[in-house]
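Prompt: May I have another protein with tokenized structure?
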Amino acid sequence: MLRDVLIQKGLSNRESEVAELVTKGMSNKEVANQLFVTEKTVKFHLTNIYKKMNVKSRAQLIVWCLPHIGFVEKEERATEVPQNPAVAPAAAPSTIPAGSATVAGTTGTGFRGNNDLGI
């Protein structure tokens, strides 16, 4: 979906791939590794993407792409079928993300915040 929109905006297939990976939050180095090219090549593609999309930064590119990504995610969620709708989701313990680790708990009171944020 996103790639089709980017191609319609005048991006090449490779530029569309780069834009899509950047929009997923990948760094230039990660994009380069994924596509088997150098970081310099990724930067070259990004310069062309910025010109064609009339944006000035990576952040503006991501903001431009967000509505198209959101549509795809909603579409994917709509096709998911719950395994057992009779079981309430609150019946199982919840998992709270904490950086790269997770902390298991219950869905109740007692969560005081995230110390990583200095709160």
